[in-house]
Amino acid sequence: MSLFSVLSVGASGMAAQRARAELLVENLANAETTRTPEGGPYRRKDVVFESTTVSSPFASIFSSELQSMGGVAVAGVVTDMSEPERRYLPGHPDADKEGYVSFPKINPAEDMVDLMGASRSYGANVAAIAAVKDMIQRSIDLAR
Question: In a 3-state reduction of DSSP, which class is residue 79?
Fold first, then answer.
C-alpha cells in the first residue's frame, strides 16, 4: 500500500460526498415545487454509492506492482416514485378538482441531518488527505 493510493481513496470519498450534498441541496430547494417540466411535483433524489478500485496516479513512478485500494464511487441516482403528499389548498393554481395539491415527499429536517453527515464525511476525507500529505512531507524532510 502506498501513501499516494490513500490520497486517491480520499479524493474518491470527497467526490462521492460532494455528489450526495448536491442532491440533498437540490431536494431542499425543491421541497415545495408542485410543478415540474415532466409534470407533477418534484421527486426526491438519493445517491447510491458503490465500492470501487482506486489506483494511484503516482503508482508508475514508484512501482509497477503497487496494490490498488478500495474507494467509493457514485453508482447512480435513485428517484423516489412513491405517491406525493397531498395537501388541501383549494386556491392554489396546481390544485386538482377536489382542491388538493401534490407536494414532494421531502422532510427538510431529515435532509439537513443528511447534509451535515455529508459535510462531516467530506471533512474527514480532507483530514485524511492532509495527514497523508504531512507524512509524505516529513518523509521527504527525513531523506534530505
Answer: strand
